[in-house]
Amino acid sequence: MTLFTKSICSACQNIRKEFDLKALGVEVEELGPNNPGALAHLAWHELVETAEKSLPILVLNDSSAITDAMEIRGYLANIVTRH
C-alpha cells in the first residue's frame, strides 16, 4: 500500500502520527518538487487530478484508492485491530 501525502497537509500529517505506517506495510510518498518519483507513481495510478483536490490518498495493493482521510483512518484502524 502507498499513502500519498504533502508536507503542508494537516490530515496527512495526522495520519502519519496516528499510525505506525511502516509496521502496517504502508509506504509513504510525499508529493513535492524534490520528489518527482512520487508524482510519477501518482500519475501511474491516474490520481493526479484527485490529489490536486484532496490528500491524503491511500492506494491499496489491488490498486484501488481511498481518498477520504476519515475512510483511510478507518481502514488503517481495521488493519491494526486484526493484528
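(ticket continues) Second input and output from the same batch:
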Amino acid sequence: MKLRLKRFSRKQRQHLIPPIQIKVRDGKFEIIGMGAWHSYWRDPYHLLLTIPWPGFLILICTFYVTINALFAIAYLMGGDCIVNARPGSFLDMFFFSVQTLASIGYGAMYPKTTYANIVVTIEAMIGLVGIAVMTGLAFARFSRPTARVLFSRVAVITPHNAMPTLIFRTANQRRNMILEAQMRVYLMRDDVTLEGQFIRRLYDLKLLRNQTPSFTLSWSVMHVIDEFSPLYGMTAESLTQTNTMLIISLSGIDETVTQVVHARHSYAANEILWNNQFVDIFHHTSDGHRYIDYNRFHDVLPLDEMS
C-alpha cells in the first residue's frame, strides 16, 4: 500500500493553520504570540481593535492623509476642473479633497467640470463609509468593558479549620461593585493515562464560596484539599514535576456600565507556597471602625513565624 502526500496550492497553503509554539516560562505554559495585537494581521477588524491607541491614531491619520493625497492627484489629472484653485497646485487640490471627504461644504473652491463632479461623488461616498467605519471602531474600542482586579502574587496552602486549604486573594481596584461575581479555579497538570499516553489534564477545584452578590473590596478564595481534591497527596516537588498550574477566572457585572467583565490570572507551581499564611490586612481604628491595609495585600509569613 502506497501513501500519497497531498500537495497544496499556494492559495490553499495560505489558509492552513500555522504551527503553534508553546514554551514554559517561570513554570507557566505560554503560547508564543497569543494576545499580541500584531498576530491579527490577517484579521483587520481584530487588528484595529487590539492595536495600541497610539498605533490606532497613527493608522487613522496615515489613511486620512493618503486617501486625500490620492484624490488630489485625481483632481490634478482633470486639469483646470476646480474653480479658484491654482492650476497645478497639489496643496489646493489636497485641501479641496479634505473639504469633500469630510462633507464640510465648499467655500471659494468648487467643481466646475463633469469629471470633477464624478470624482467628488466617488469621494463623498468613500468619505461617508469611512467616517461610519472609523466612528464604529473608535466606539467599539471605548465601549469594551474591562475589570481592574488585583490578584495576590502567590497562593498559599495552609491549615484552615484543621484542613489543608489552598488560598489566594483578590481585590476590586475600582470604587464600585462587581455584581453577581463568580470565581472559577482550574488545576492543569501533566498526566499519563493507563495506556501510557501523555495528556495535559484540566481539573475543576471546588471552592468554599465560588460567588458573591457584590465584589467590592477583597475576596479570599479557598479550596479545601480533601480526599476528593486533585491536590490531595501532592507535594511542592510533585507540583513542579507535573508542571501544575492554577488558572483563575473571575466574571461579573460591572455596576457602572452594567456589562459583564472578566479577569484572569494564573499561578505556577513555584508561586504556590506551602505552610505559609497571608498577613491579615483587616485592622481596627481607635474609634472602632475597620479598614483594609492594601499595602500588605501580597505579604505572607511562614506558619512557624506566626505561632
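Agent notes: Confidence is low (pLDDT under 50) at residues 12-17. The radius of gyration is 30 Å. Closing as not reproducible unless the customer responds.
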